[in-house]
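Methods: example folding runs. The two proteins below were folded one after another, and each record is reproduced exactly as written to the output file, sequence line first and structure-token line second.
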Amino acid sequence: MKRSSWGFGQIVLLSLHVSLTTAFSDSILQILPENSGSSPHHRHRHRKIPRDDNLYCDSWRFVVEANDVGPWARIPSRCVAFVQDYVTNDRYRADSEAVADASLEFAKTVKVSGNGKDAWVFDIDETLLSNVPYYAVHGFGSETFDENSFDEWVDLAEAPALPASLRLYKELEQLGFKISLLTGRTEFQRSATSKNLDYAGYSNWERLILRGPSDHGKPATVYKSERRKELEDEGYVIHGSSGDQWSDLNGFAVAERSFKLPNPLYYIA
């Protein structure tokens, strides 16, 4: 899901672009096998994480995902290595696959009417697209979010797909669901977002809904609830919803079933 803040000069952007396209050039996020040592990101995995930090950070990630922590701005400094290890290795992919499997299991129980109104709503950032390449050069969530630099990353339109989500997306299409994309990105990012989705392998969405001028300053829960209500008012039945933030899923006009993807990098209210 999209946060809001950034900045960056052209020289820094060029450096960011070169480093990201070199290390993360594929259109689908590459998660390293546990026994692979070929990547510099994997070598960081073997930086020793103290046992007490590992236990603390694993518990911190659990309460974050359960939404027990409440609003938070940055990951704890002692958890940078832990979060880096999590989002660049098998555990993140396995957790995402488990969510996709549960989503698909539910989707197969839905009696799709065939009238074009059976809907599934997806968030985009950290749900369909991964911004791990961006956070890899911005402290894996340990730095204060900068909207300008993130906007420049979005403009590159090179965020890879989350493999589990891409699989789920394609299978929902085959089951007959109409897919709407509901993101916290703004209208001026429509072109870059569409380009990135195409690059990552997504297509045939029914709606791509972005924040307009009237949505400025609205909490994500309110904004997304209002947009879901508009879909319902048009006759859509929202059977499922997928997002990495609770604000993607909660509020009103909620889906019949909502599915939370893992994200220990940031929080959006």
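Second run, written to the same file directly after the first:
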Amino acid sequence: FNEFLLLAFADTRQLQLLHFWLFLGIYLAALLGNGLIITAVACDHRLHTPMYFFLLNLSLLDLGTISTTVPKSMANSLSNTRAISYWECAAQVFHFTFLLATEYSVLTVMAYDRYVAICKPLHYGTIMSSRACVKMAATAWASGFLNTLLHTANTFSIPLCQGNVVEQFFCEIPQILKLSCSDAYPWEFGLLVVSACLSFGCFIFIVLSYVQIFTVVLRIPSEQGRHKAFSMCLPHLAVVSLFISTGFFACLKPPSISSPLLDLVVSVLYAVLPPTVNPLIYSMRNKELKDALK
């Protein structure tokens, strides 16, 4: 195939234009929110700490994720088309998977950062040194890149014989695999199993980190100390919960309740909502970030 046909949000011109303006508003909000966080962390020396360094990485990833899917969907609605070229689709699959995988790794590292800050405060400066933080971030980006390179190369080497209609508003690996000839992707299935195991490992690590954190926090005698500790952790916990719950629901929803409309809503929830909402979650009750933005 020279091109794929993406799932359209609407078939009437009025609804297509509504979709365009709605997505434009969401996209601009995500650009503004993440852009402000990146600028604040980069320009204010008071925010040059491990927590804000990883938050900077998270905002960069969120900007990339929403920029991979939303602009193409908006352009298609505006020009009344569903087409995406083969190479555009491959690029979209690569960038979206890479950014999502890296974001999950960064969120895992952020959980470790919160664990060290609360459970081992005296050793925080030593464990979370500048060099250690750069190494952790580099490992997260490199692992995401390598994982995605294998997946994308494997997915697009599989022969497709089920048409060229992608049941999604952007290209992603599960939708491309649906178009492949049956039983033609044992390698990709093996890679997906390995990725699922690694994802589950990260999930267990995050859960165990927070079990330890809450155990320590609940032992703090002063209410003010407990409140400060919780305020350090709750934004990250909210972001992780949103990321994992939307991703898990998208992957594990039963086929019996699947429909094009539901699939579309779910894909918006996990591909568009987190990058837009994350800056709000992090800045809502964060005095340091608010002061830096002012």
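Comment on the second run: The radius of gyration is 21 Å.
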